[in-house]
Sequence to fold (501 residues):
Amino acid sequence: MNGRWLGMAVAIGVTVAQTAPVRAGLFNPETFTLDNGMQVVVIPNHRAPVVAHWVWYKVGTADSPPGKSGLPHFLEHLMFKATDEIPSGEFSKIVARNGGNDNAITSYDFTAYFQMIAKDRLELVMGMEADRMVNLKLTEDVVIPEREVVIEERRSRVENEPGSLMSEQLAAIQYLNHPYRLPVIGWMREMQTYDRHDAVSFYETWYAPNNAVLVVAGDITAEELRPMAERTYGRIAPRDVPARHRVGEPPQRAERRLELADPRVRQPSLVRSWLAPSYTADPPGVVGAGGGASGAGNAETGAPPAAAYALEVVSELFGRGGTSRLYKALVVDRPLAAGVGSYYSGTALDPTSFRIYASPRPGVTLDALEAALDEQVALLVAEGVSEEELQRVKKRMKAQAVYARDSLSGAARTFGAALTTGQTVADVEAWPDRIDAVTVDEANAVIRRVFVDARSVTGRLVPQAAVEEAGVARDATPSPAAAGDGEAVPAAMDGEGGTAR
Fold:
């Protein structure tokens, strides 16, 4: 757009580094960097004249100022307010009038804004996105009403959802000190203190081209995109952005358990979570010396830890889909669970977690289901995985990666999340090879190192009535209740811990 933001930007000579194609691989992207430091990734896919346009900022809830948890998500909302060029609330309407759709997401490590739109409208949304990168107008009468909007969002999406409350409590206990323990949306009491100064300060600190990554996937090439990037984002001046220094996570020495009882719960469930390495960070005492890409501890340098790739394979084998060990053992062979699975993603700036979750069939107690889960985990640790299992799962994972190329937004999300959490374009392209390189010894070693009780949290989510009945039973008998009787957890896992508008 030819707006006031162009005049406000410092006139820097914008040239673009030689476009660098990555070797033939999974997505075959091209990448270049503007002189203002903005990295650009292009993922060509010419099946239809459509593009997915994403701008990723290297800041998320884990970077919230002290006492202002969730501030990145609040700013995400405010980014749809007015600039000098676009009235408040008009951004999405303009996108829709041009045949597209848009939204935004906030996670622990990033905030991202995206549009799906026809190729011939791409430069329009690039100009709009560049405009709000530097020209957002945050007045008191804009900020305070929107604060009430995010507070209401928390009420509806968290306070009124027992599963969300459990996920929130689980994270707060999983991490003793690291800001991954914060809710992405923020704690209610801290959200109520947001003011204009908070929003403006955060915006001016973190929203800059040299702290952003542009990812465009679809019917476009780097040669076509480069001049558009120069005319829009390339005109914005860079500025100093602070390092993402986060407090580290100390060694965890004690198993933790929690229970959430709520009358709104219809289906009991449980989850167990272990501290685990990410692609760029090892937690203390698990694999290496500990630390993370943000400096939260003694970060290791060099290639991402092989443990994370081994854990991806273990998760697929142990708990993903109808052929997984957990599904066959607890749904098919011994029908105790209505649903069961595992979740792990290595895409995090700092140490992450590995989770298993389950809900019982009618007539099966949560205690019985947990005991059966314990047996499966113990079996995995004691016996490990076989070469035959490993090869079968790796083949399936590589096939799934090939199919992932068909999704424009999926491809853009893959690169954006990776590049905002310490990985490189080459790391993304190397993923199939690194998965293929995982050995039985590596998989079994990471199983023994990660599945340690002292680094685990177990949660159980139960109806309030079940707890009251259990209490009556305990009062009526002199024998002590079994440890963990009536505890709780959410079945739904949000892979990125993110929240969207």
User: Anything to note?
Assistant: The two ends are 25 Å apart (CA to CA).
